[in-house]
UniProtKB/TrEMBL annotation:
This is Hydroxyethylthiazole kinase. It holds the Pfam family HK. It comes from the Bacteria. It catalyses: 5-(2-hydroxyethyl)-4-methylthiazole + ATP = 4-methyl-5-(2-phosphooxyethyl)-thiazole + ADP + H(+). It comes from Anaerococcus groningensis. The lineage of its organism: Bacteria, Bacillati, Bacillota, Tissierellia, Tissierellales. CDD domains: THZ_kinase. Its cofactor is Mg(2+). Belongs to the Thz kinase family. The keyword Transcription regulation does not apply. GO terms for molecular function: hydroxyethylthiazole kinase activity. Its EC number is 2.7.1.50. Pathway: Cofactor biosynthesis; thiamine diphosphate biosynthesis; 4-methyl-5-(2-phosphoethyl)-thiazole from 5-(2-hydroxyethyl)-4-methylthiazole: step 1/1. SUPFAM superfamilies: Ribokinase-like.
Length: 263
Protein backbone atom coordinates (compact mmCIF):
# COMPACT_ATOMS: atom_id res chain seq x y z
CA UNK A 1 0.00 0.00 0.00
CA UNK A 2 1.30 3.47 -0.89
CA UNK A 3 1.78 5.61 2.21
CA UNK A 4 0.70 9.18 1.50
CA UNK A 5 1.07 10.55 5.04
CA UNK A 6 4.35 12.40 4.56
CA UNK A 7 3.55 14.16 1.31
CA UNK A 8 -0.01 14.97 2.38
CA UNK A 9 1.39 16.50 5.58
CA UNK A 10 3.80 18.61 3.53
CA UNK A 11 0.98 19.89 1.34
CA UNK A 12 -1.22 20.75 4.31
CA UNK A 13 1.55 22.40 6.35
CA UNK A 14 3.57 24.23 3.68
CA UNK A 15 2.45 26.56 0.92
CA UNK A 16 3.99 26.46 -2.53
CA UNK A 17 3.31 28.95 -5.31
CA UNK A 18 1.90 27.22 -8.38
CA UNK A 19 2.02 29.23 -11.60
CA UNK A 20 -0.74 28.00 -13.88
CA UNK A 21 -1.34 29.16 -17.44
CA UNK A 22 -4.71 27.57 -18.10
CA UNK A 23 -8.02 27.94 -19.87
CA UNK A 24 -10.27 30.67 -18.42
CA UNK A 25 -13.03 28.04 -18.40
CA UNK A 26 -11.29 26.33 -15.48
CA UNK A 27 -9.15 29.03 -13.88
CA UNK A 28 -11.48 29.95 -11.02
CA UNK A 29 -12.16 26.36 -9.94
CA UNK A 30 -8.49 25.43 -10.27
CA UNK A 31 -7.43 28.38 -8.13
CA UNK A 32 -10.03 27.58 -5.47
CA UNK A 33 -9.00 23.91 -5.34
CA UNK A 34 -5.33 24.86 -4.86
CA UNK A 35 -6.27 27.34 -2.14
CA UNK A 36 -8.32 24.65 -0.39
CA UNK A 37 -5.20 22.45 -0.40
CA UNK A 38 -3.18 25.23 1.26
CA UNK A 39 -1.34 26.15 -1.95
CA UNK A 40 -0.94 29.57 -3.60
CA UNK A 41 -2.12 29.73 -7.23
CA UNK A 42 -1.07 32.51 -9.56
CA UNK A 43 -2.50 32.60 -13.08
CA UNK A 44 -0.37 35.22 -14.81
CA UNK A 45 -0.02 34.92 -18.58
CA UNK A 46 0.97 38.45 -19.69
CA UNK A 47 4.26 37.82 -21.47
CA UNK A 48 6.07 40.77 -19.87
CA UNK A 49 5.63 39.40 -16.34
CA UNK A 50 5.50 35.63 -16.87
CA UNK A 51 9.27 35.07 -16.66
CA UNK A 52 9.42 36.73 -13.23
CA UNK A 53 6.32 34.97 -11.93
CA UNK A 54 7.60 31.55 -12.98
CA UNK A 55 11.03 32.22 -11.49
CA UNK A 56 9.40 32.85 -8.11
CA UNK A 57 7.13 29.79 -8.24
CA UNK A 58 7.57 26.16 -7.19
CA UNK A 59 5.99 24.66 -10.32
CA UNK A 60 4.70 25.76 -13.73
CA UNK A 61 1.54 24.24 -15.19
CA UNK A 62 1.08 24.77 -18.92
CA UNK A 63 -2.42 23.96 -20.19
CA UNK A 64 -3.15 24.36 -23.90
CA UNK A 65 -6.85 25.08 -23.49
CA UNK A 66 -8.21 28.14 -25.39
CA UNK A 67 -5.02 29.01 -27.23
CA UNK A 68 -4.32 32.46 -28.68
CA UNK A 69 -1.20 34.33 -29.76
CA UNK A 70 -0.92 36.32 -26.54
CA UNK A 71 -1.12 33.18 -24.42
CA UNK A 72 1.49 31.42 -26.55
CA UNK A 73 3.85 34.37 -25.98
CA UNK A 74 3.29 34.06 -22.25
CA UNK A 75 3.82 30.31 -22.31
CA UNK A 76 7.11 30.80 -24.17
CA UNK A 77 8.38 33.13 -21.44
CA UNK A 78 7.20 30.76 -18.71
CA UNK A 79 8.95 27.79 -20.26
CA UNK A 80 12.13 29.78 -20.76
CA UNK A 81 12.10 30.87 -17.12
CA UNK A 82 11.34 27.37 -15.83
CA UNK A 83 14.20 25.91 -17.87
CA UNK A 84 16.69 28.55 -16.74
CA UNK A 85 15.61 28.51 -13.08
CA UNK A 86 15.02 24.77 -12.61
CA UNK A 87 11.29 25.09 -12.01
CA UNK A 88 9.39 21.83 -12.72
CA UNK A 89 7.10 22.01 -15.76
CA UNK A 90 3.81 20.12 -15.99
CA UNK A 91 2.36 20.04 -19.51
CA UNK A 92 -1.32 19.38 -20.18
CA UNK A 93 -1.64 19.11 -23.99
CA UNK A 94 -5.37 19.83 -24.18
CA UNK A 95 -6.70 19.07 -27.66
CA UNK A 96 -3.40 17.68 -28.97
CA UNK A 97 -5.42 14.88 -30.53
CA UNK A 98 -7.75 17.30 -32.33
CA UNK A 99 -5.79 20.09 -34.05
CA UNK A 100 -2.47 20.28 -35.81
CA UNK A 101 -1.31 23.42 -33.98
CA UNK A 102 -1.90 21.88 -30.55
CA UNK A 103 -0.16 18.63 -31.46
CA UNK A 104 2.84 20.37 -33.02
CA UNK A 105 3.08 22.79 -30.10
CA UNK A 106 3.05 19.93 -27.59
CA UNK A 107 5.73 18.04 -29.48
CA UNK A 108 7.87 21.18 -29.71
CA UNK A 109 7.65 21.77 -25.94
CA UNK A 110 8.53 18.15 -25.20
CA UNK A 111 11.55 18.32 -27.49
CA UNK A 112 12.92 21.66 -26.32
CA UNK A 113 12.03 21.97 -22.61
CA UNK A 114 12.52 19.68 -19.59
CA UNK A 115 8.89 18.66 -19.15
CA UNK A 116 8.72 16.79 -15.83
CA UNK A 117 5.12 15.60 -16.12
CA UNK A 118 3.08 15.09 -19.31
CA UNK A 119 -0.60 14.73 -18.42
CA UNK A 120 -3.38 14.14 -20.93
CA UNK A 121 -6.33 11.92 -21.70
CA UNK A 122 -5.86 8.67 -23.61
CA UNK A 123 -6.36 10.28 -27.02
CA UNK A 124 -3.95 13.16 -26.35
CA UNK A 125 -1.22 10.80 -25.14
CA UNK A 126 -1.88 8.45 -28.07
CA UNK A 127 -1.65 11.32 -30.57
CA UNK A 128 1.57 12.67 -29.10
CA UNK A 129 3.15 9.22 -29.31
CA UNK A 130 2.04 8.56 -32.89
CA UNK A 131 2.37 12.23 -33.93
CA UNK A 132 -1.02 12.21 -35.61
CA UNK A 133 -4.52 13.52 -34.90
CA UNK A 134 -7.14 11.09 -33.62
CA UNK A 135 -10.22 13.10 -32.56
CA UNK A 136 -12.26 16.13 -33.63
CA UNK A 137 -12.58 17.58 -30.10
CA UNK A 138 -10.97 17.52 -26.67
CA UNK A 139 -12.68 14.36 -25.42
CA UNK A 140 -10.93 10.99 -25.49
CA UNK A 141 -11.72 8.16 -27.87
CA UNK A 142 -11.66 4.50 -26.87
CA UNK A 143 -8.15 3.04 -26.87
CA UNK A 144 -7.23 -0.37 -25.48
CA UNK A 145 -5.82 -0.09 -21.96
CA UNK A 146 -2.88 -2.37 -22.74
CA UNK A 147 -1.92 -0.21 -25.72
CA UNK A 148 -2.03 3.08 -23.82
CA UNK A 149 -0.03 1.59 -20.93
CA UNK A 150 2.77 0.65 -23.35
CA UNK A 151 2.58 4.11 -24.94
CA UNK A 152 2.92 5.81 -21.54
CA UNK A 153 5.96 3.70 -20.71
CA UNK A 154 7.62 4.42 -24.04
CA UNK A 155 6.85 8.16 -23.93
CA UNK A 156 8.24 8.43 -20.41
CA UNK A 157 11.52 6.90 -21.53
CA UNK A 158 11.60 8.88 -24.78
CA UNK A 159 11.24 12.27 -23.10
CA UNK A 160 12.63 11.47 -19.63
CA UNK A 161 9.36 12.48 -18.02
CA UNK A 162 6.47 11.07 -16.01
CA UNK A 163 3.44 10.40 -18.20
CA UNK A 164 -0.12 10.50 -16.89
CA UNK A 165 -2.94 9.20 -19.08
CA UNK A 166 -6.34 9.97 -17.60
CA UNK A 167 -9.36 7.86 -18.43
CA UNK A 168 -11.69 5.31 -16.89
CA UNK A 169 -8.52 4.01 -15.26
CA UNK A 170 -5.62 6.43 -14.82
CA UNK A 171 -2.09 5.42 -15.81
CA UNK A 172 1.14 6.86 -14.39
CA UNK A 173 4.55 5.81 -15.67
CA UNK A 174 8.14 7.01 -15.47
CA UNK A 175 9.27 4.30 -17.87
CA UNK A 176 10.49 2.02 -15.08
CA UNK A 177 7.50 1.86 -12.75
CA UNK A 178 3.84 2.03 -13.79
CA UNK A 179 0.75 2.50 -11.63
CA UNK A 180 -2.86 1.91 -12.65
CA UNK A 181 -5.39 3.87 -10.54
CA UNK A 182 -9.00 2.68 -10.55
CA UNK A 183 -10.97 5.19 -8.48
CA UNK A 184 -13.23 7.90 -9.91
CA UNK A 185 -16.77 8.69 -10.99
CA UNK A 186 -18.48 8.63 -14.42
CA UNK A 187 -19.70 12.14 -13.65
CA UNK A 188 -16.19 13.66 -13.67
CA UNK A 189 -15.96 13.95 -17.49
CA UNK A 190 -19.33 15.73 -17.49
CA UNK A 191 -17.95 18.68 -15.46
CA UNK A 192 -15.97 21.19 -17.50
CA UNK A 193 -12.46 21.79 -16.19
CA UNK A 194 -11.90 18.72 -14.01
CA UNK A 195 -8.94 17.74 -16.17
CA UNK A 196 -7.46 21.21 -15.70
CA UNK A 197 -8.07 20.97 -11.95
CA UNK A 198 -6.24 17.66 -11.93
CA UNK A 199 -3.28 19.31 -13.64
CA UNK A 200 -3.17 21.90 -10.87
CA UNK A 201 -3.25 19.30 -8.10
CA UNK A 202 -0.52 17.31 -9.86
CA UNK A 203 1.65 20.43 -10.14
CA UNK A 204 1.20 21.14 -6.44
CA UNK A 205 1.92 17.59 -5.28
CA UNK A 206 4.91 17.21 -7.63
CA UNK A 207 6.40 20.46 -6.33
CA UNK A 208 6.79 18.74 -2.95
CA UNK A 209 7.92 15.26 -4.00
CA UNK A 210 9.03 14.56 -7.55
CA UNK A 211 7.88 10.97 -7.94
CA UNK A 212 5.01 8.70 -8.96
CA UNK A 213 3.55 8.56 -5.46
CA UNK A 214 2.99 12.32 -5.41
CA UNK A 215 1.11 12.11 -8.70
CA UNK A 216 -0.90 9.11 -7.47
CA UNK A 217 -1.89 11.20 -4.46
CA UNK A 218 -2.97 14.10 -6.69
CA UNK A 219 -5.11 11.88 -8.89
CA UNK A 220 -6.63 10.19 -5.85
CA UNK A 221 -7.57 13.53 -4.27
CA UNK A 222 -9.74 14.27 -7.30
CA UNK A 223 -11.05 10.77 -7.97
CA UNK A 224 -11.90 9.83 -4.40
CA UNK A 225 -13.34 13.30 -3.87
CA UNK A 226 -15.63 12.53 -6.81
CA UNK A 227 -16.63 9.20 -5.29
CA UNK A 228 -17.61 10.97 -2.06
CA UNK A 229 -19.45 13.84 -3.76
CA UNK A 230 -23.24 14.03 -3.91
CA UNK A 231 -24.45 12.41 -7.15
CA UNK A 232 -28.23 12.27 -7.00
CA UNK A 233 -29.26 15.95 -7.12
CA UNK A 234 -27.90 17.18 -10.46
CA UNK A 235 -24.59 18.28 -11.98
CA UNK A 236 -24.32 21.65 -10.22
CA UNK A 237 -24.67 19.98 -6.83
CA UNK A 238 -22.13 17.33 -7.82
CA UNK A 239 -19.60 19.99 -8.84
CA UNK A 240 -19.94 21.98 -5.59
CA UNK A 241 -19.86 18.78 -3.56
CA UNK A 242 -16.72 17.69 -5.42
CA UNK A 243 -14.96 20.94 -4.47
CA UNK A 244 -16.11 20.43 -0.88
CA UNK A 245 -14.80 16.87 -0.74
CA UNK A 246 -11.42 17.87 -2.18
CA UNK A 247 -11.06 20.50 0.56
CA UNK A 248 -12.05 18.01 3.28
CA UNK A 249 -10.16 14.91 2.17
CA UNK A 250 -7.32 13.47 4.26
CA UNK A 251 -4.62 10.87 3.73
CA UNK A 252 -6.45 8.27 5.85
CA UNK A 253 -9.52 8.46 3.62
CA UNK A 254 -7.36 8.11 0.52
CA UNK A 255 -5.45 5.12 1.87
CA UNK A 256 -8.69 3.41 2.90
CA UNK A 257 -10.40 3.93 -0.49
CA UNK A 258 -7.63 3.87 -3.09
CA UNK A 259 -7.77 1.06 -5.62
CA UNK A 260 -4.59 0.68 -7.66
CA UNK A 261 -2.30 -1.82 -9.30
CA UNK A 262 1.46 -1.79 -9.78
CA UNK A 263 2.33 -3.09 -13.23
Amino acid sequence: MINFDDIFKQIKESTHTIHAIVSPLASNDLANVLLSLNQAPILAEYYKEVYEVTKNSHALLINLGTLNQSKLMGIKEGLKSAKENNIPIILDPVGASATKVRLETSLYYLKNYPIKVLKGNYSEIYSIYHKKLTTSGVDAKNIAKEEIIKICQDLATMYNTIVVASGKEDIISDGKETLLLKNGSPLLPKVTGTGCILGGIIAAAYSFEKNLNAIALAISILNIGAELAIKDKGMATFKISLLDQISLIDSKTIEERIIYEKL
